Amino acid sequence: MSDRFIVLSGCSGGGKSTLLEELRRRGHAVVEEPGRRIVQEELASGGSALPWRDLAAFARRAVAMARADRERMCDHPGLVFFDRGLIDAASALEAAGGDPILAGLAAEHRYNKQVFLTPPWPEIYAGDPERRHGFDAALGEYERLEKTYPALGYEVVILPKAPVGERADFVLARLAG
């Protein structure tokens, strides 16, 4: 199962969601980023589990949602692309001073050994209602994840700064090779 689960991670605003949409367009199963879904739900309900209000509560919700996403996709027969996932959420929780759960969750819930990271790309970075942090915070997040994945035994593949179609071709070629 874990070989079919592909993580797209890296720098906020680096084009993950755009790449995910291209992979969906090409017929692959995709799972949208837990963080964005949580922010949308919290803003709609007036909740406080927002990264700029209560990062630990936000990260705990992201861990729970990422676990549920994995469970939901277990029976899907093909590749499944995750915009972030359990490791990103658990890493954020630990960085926020929450429970040290990363190593245990990472051992229990593996993804494909190749993790694709979007590098910092200031030319396309933009804030929005769900992404209120600046580029410097996105860069710090990227640097944390760039270290976290290899420490857990994953092979980090940095995505090229290229048009989305070329990025999708790159990912699929790496997975086929």
From TrEMBL:
Domain NadR/Ttd14 AAA: 6-167
Entry superkingdom: Bacteria
InterPro entries, sorted: NadR/Ttd14_AAA_dom, P-loop_NTPase
UniProt xrefs under SUPFAM superfamilies: P-loop containing nucleoside triphosphate hydrolases
Name of the featured protein: AAA family ATPase
